[in-house]
């Protein structure tokens, strides 16, 4: 399920929904060029002994008023808090607190209270 809030804009993004999961993007977000967001790794990987899948997909949630900078990658299970900003080239795979700037690979908090 893809849920996109009002007044959200996107320039040449890639939203990947390969599994029956939810990708929620809040209201008034800005998604820059070449941003990639996915709820899965696209292909399953299985344990050789048990045959069990070891890379299940997970929902993604992006809060309101979030700015995803150029070439940001938002990976499965990521949760980005309201008012957060991702620096260009960031790889987000965990939780981003609200109202902060994150950057790097993996993304880390660079500044709070923005």
- The overall pLDDT average reads 97
Query: What order do the SSEs take from the amino end to the carboxyl end, as H and E?
Result: EEEEEEEEEEEEEEE
Structural class by secondary-structure content? mainly beta
For the report, how would you describe the main beta sheet?
A: 6 strands, mixed
* Low-confidence segments: none
Q: What is the subunit organization of this protein?
A: single chain
Beta-strand portion reads: 35-45%
Radius of gyration: 14 Å
Percent helix among the residues?
Answer: under 10%
What is the count of β-strands? 15
Shape: globular
Distance between the termini: 30 Å
How does this structure look, described?
The chain is globular and about 50 Å long. The chain is mainly beta. It has a six-stranded mixed β-sheet, with no helix packed on it. A five-stranded parallel β-sheet has the order 1-4-7-10-13, with no helix packed on it. Strands 3-6-9-12 form a four-stranded parallel β-sheet, with no helix packed on it. The protein has no helices and 15 strands.
Can you give me a brief rundown of this structure?
With 114 residues, the protein is mostly beta strands. It is built from no helices and 15 strands. It has strands at residues 2-4, 9-10, 14-16, 23-25, 30-31, 36-38, 60-62, 67-68, 73-74, 79-80, 85-86, 91-92, 95-96, 100-103, 108-112.
List keywords for this structure.
mainly beta; 114 residues; 5-stranded parallel beta sheet
């Amino acid at each position: 399920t893809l849920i996109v809030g009002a007044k959200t804009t996107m320039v040449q993004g890639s939203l990947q929904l390969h599994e029956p999961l939810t990708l929620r993007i809040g209201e008034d977000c800005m998604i820059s060029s070449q941003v990639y967001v996915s709820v899965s790794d696209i292909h399953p990987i299985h344990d050789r002994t048990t045959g069990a899948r070891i890379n299940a997909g997970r929902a993604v949630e992006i809060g309101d008023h979030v700015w995803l900078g150029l070439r940001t990658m938002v990976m499965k299970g990521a949760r980005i808090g309201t008012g957060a900003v991702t620096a260009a080239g960031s790889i987000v795979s965990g939780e981003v607190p609200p109202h902060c700037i994150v950057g790097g690979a993996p993304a880390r908090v660079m500044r709070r209270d923005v």
